[in-house]
């Protein structure tokens, strides 16, 4: 059975250096870290997790709470968090919780599992105090959605500017009748994207038109059918996320229409699927993996003693593909 001494001897370093290289703690050159970890991997060496936890007082696991794992955005966010966690010798324990009751239960289970801290998408409770209470004394970072979150560190993207990017793109293509299919009511991301859409349209002297959606494929299809069957049908739409945009695309094609010929569509997120549909979805890209990675970094910052409350805001960018074209 390979132990840390065997790893150190083969790597030509002290046991202390090998331990630092494997735990990511303390100063070790990148070359030494790479050499030690390669030897450990080759020997399938698993440092005694219990011993490590007892010595460090940490479980080296983080809890990640997301609202919905059926939306590709959240698994992609988890992938970014997991990559950053693994680089630090940590693991991510994922749970999907919709609503306060299931969130309270899941946070309690994760606390019992001894996670070192929590990353939560938005606040499933009515107040930051309730979230703080459910998380206990463990460090906490809120990612992506930050409504009703005060005095907690957050990692978000600029949703207002992201929505404005989509509108500017369509205006540059000559569209003047641009509608927006919104996200679910009550979320800050929904309101912020509507605000960015309306701000940009009004700045161009155009009339906003918002139709309710709920981030699902079905809501995008239903909304676009209502828009195209109604008066003054739009020549372009922006949607609050990619799934709604894909639903809208399907609805146009199902009625014999074409995208972007009959309707230009801009989504929001840039999930992997956005590049796989045909035509490829023009969308506002959030760096989803980076959101997860930065949330892990923020948690690590708190775990190593820096508990200042901080907001990290990531930018968005427009990814032009095939669902937008010049207004006819
Ligand atoms: O697609 C899911 C949406 O909910 C994303 O836009 C993300 O911002 C999350 O809040």
From TrEMBL:
SUPFAM superfamilies cross-referenced by the UniProt entry: lambda repressor-like DNA-binding domains, Periplasmic binding protein-like I
Domain HTH lacI-type: 2-56
The entry's keywords: DNA-binding, Transcription, Transcription regulation
Gene Ontology MF term list: DNA-binding transcription factor activity; transcription cis-regulatory region binding
Record-linked CDD domains: HTH_LacI (cd01392), PBP1_LacI_sugar_binding-like (cd06267)
Keyword presence, Transcription: yes
InterPro entries named in the record: HTH_LacI, LacI/GalR-like_sensor, Lambda_DNA-bd_dom_sf, Peripla_BP_I
PANTHER family named in the record: ALANINE RACEMASE, LACI-RELATED TRANSCRIPTIONAL REPRESSOR
Protein name: LacI family DNA-binding transcriptional regulator
Organism expressing this protein natively: Prauserella cavernicola
């Amino acid at each position: 059975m390979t132990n840390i001494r065997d790893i150190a001897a083969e790597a030509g370093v002290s046991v202390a250096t090998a331990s630092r290289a494997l735990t990511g703690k303390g100063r070790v050159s990148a070359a030494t870290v790479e050499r030690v970890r390669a030897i450990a991997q080759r020997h399938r060496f698993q440092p005694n997790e219990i011993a490590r936890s007892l010595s460090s007082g940490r479980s080296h696991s983080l809890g990640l709470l997301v609202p919905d794992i059926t939306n590709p955005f959240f698994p992609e966010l988890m992938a970014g968090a997991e990559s950053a966690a693994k680089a630090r010798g940590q693991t991510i324990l994922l749970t999907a919780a919709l609503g306060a009751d299931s969130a309270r239960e899941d946070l309690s289970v994760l606390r019992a599992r001894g996670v070192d801290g929590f990353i939560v998408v938005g606040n499933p409770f009515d107040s930051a105090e309730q979230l703080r209470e459910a998380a206990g004394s463990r460090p906490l970072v809120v990612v992506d959605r930050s409504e009703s979150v005060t005095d907690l560190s957050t990692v978000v993207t600029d949703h207002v500017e992201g929505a404005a990017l989509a509108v500017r793109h369509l205006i540059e293509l000559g569209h003047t009748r641009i509608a927006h299919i919104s996200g679910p009511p009550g979320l800050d991301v929904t309101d912020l994207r509507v605000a960015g859409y309306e701000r940009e349209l009004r700045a161009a002297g155009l009339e906003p038109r918002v139709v309710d959606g709920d981030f699902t494929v079905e809501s995008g299809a239903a909304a676009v059918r209502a828009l195209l069957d109604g008066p003054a049908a739009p020549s372009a739409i922006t949607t609050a996320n990619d799934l709604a945009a894909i639903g809208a695309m399907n609805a146009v094609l199902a009625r014999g229409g074409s995208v972007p010929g009959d309707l230009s569509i801009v989504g929001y997120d840039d999930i992997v699927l956005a590049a796989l549909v045909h035509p490829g979805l023009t969308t506002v890209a959030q760096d989803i993996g980076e959101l997860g990675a930065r949330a892990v970094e923020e948690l690590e910052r708190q775990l190593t003693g820096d508990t200042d409350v901080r907001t990290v805001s990531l930018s968005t960018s427009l990814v032009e593909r095939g669902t937008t074209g010049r207004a006819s």
